Amino acid sequence: MDLLLSAYSNNSDSDDEEEQQQQKQPEPKKQRFSIPSSESQKPNLTLPSTPSLPTPIPGRYVSKRQRQRFDPLSTLPSPLHPPSPFTLTGSILDADLPRSIMPLLKSKAKGHQNLSSIPEKLSVALYGHTKPVNAIHWSSTHAHLLASAGMDHTVCVWNIWSRGQKKACVLNFHDSAVKDVKWSQQGPFLLSCGYDCTSRLVDVEKGLETQVFREDQVVGAIKFSPDNSNLFISGGSKGNIKLWDIRTGKVVHNYNRNLGPVLDVEFTMNGKQFISSSDVSGSNVSENSIIVWDVSRQVPLSNQVYVEAYTCPCVRRHPFDPVFVAQSNGNYLAIFTTTPPYRLNKYKRYESHGVSGFPIKCNFNLDGKKLASGSSDGYIYLYDYQSSEVVKKIKAYDQACIDVAFHPVIPDVIASCSWDGSISVFE
């Protein structure tokens, strides 16, 4: 033990002597690092140095932290690389689609023999969003493309039947969560809206944002006019509804009635009227839950369409009959007429699925004989339009199925999205 103590004491003594000698040594002159120049007449370029730091002594151990302090390049700021608003991850073209699908996509919907075919099995599972998906929409002009709007601030475009990368591109123009997305009837243009209080029109082929429509409210729902594809309607969190013209980027009409947050909007078949659904849970009056508006006169035609104490997160019109359905938080779909006096059908409803506070959406198929709805239990419910009976249940997700959309051309294809961020296509 004495030997160990003496050994350690001798080492410490020698260390002290070395430290004293190092202190007596004169400090080395500070050096300036310069980059040699090939032309003598040009001055030397000097990098920023830290004059307060001594030059390290050769042969002495220098820790990693000290090396970073001695390194003049470590004081330079690192360049920032902001994320690109448009990321091309695949192709939006139909060049690599299977030969079997091309004739189906290019044919007219009416050319199919059975428009009421029921999807049987999962065809494609898509994963790209990191948060819940709020809405999906098929393109009518490029029928192989599906768009999805997510809470992760992005809009994804999917090339569903591509043999390569199915995620064609990602649009990151919004600063916050995206609530709704719609394809234009004029071509590959996407309109989306969200929590950043804007609606944005993007040319998907060029990857460019062509128009930004700003509001003073969160924009929760958008819909193009079936009568004029240059017009679209938007509804937001302050209850304001606006009709926009994409050619000028300006508001054409305002529709104000002290409503609660607008949950959805839908045009009637001729585009002369539209239907709005609002959240009236904060008031004692439920008569403004669903309103039918005159587009040109900017006045409500009826505000007593639905007087039950439930909000309706979705409204959809029938493709041929003068009726529309509303998704009720009472866990059923109610049906109304689109002609005066806009009556509720008290003897018919679609009530096997669940809503449970989720923004569950619904849609009719091509011929209007089937009505599909998402559900809080993760199933897709297919109802017979006439009898209101459940025709089929499809287990799609473990979490809530938020939106469902029938393909605009192929009758037995339906897409859906989930609260877990995934998207599925059934055939």
From TrEMBL:
It comes from the Eukaryota. The keyword Nucleotide-binding does not apply. The keyword Repeat applies. Keywords: Repeat, WD repeat. Residues 34-44 have a biased composition (Polar residues). WD repeats lie at residues 126-160, 212-254, 364-393. Coiled coil: none annotated. Gene3D superfamilies: YVTN repeat-like/Quinoprotein amine dehydrogenase. Residues 1-60 are annotated as: Disordered. This is WD repeat-containing protein 25. The lineage of its organism: Eukaryota, Viridiplantae, Streptophyta, Embryophyta, Tracheophyta.
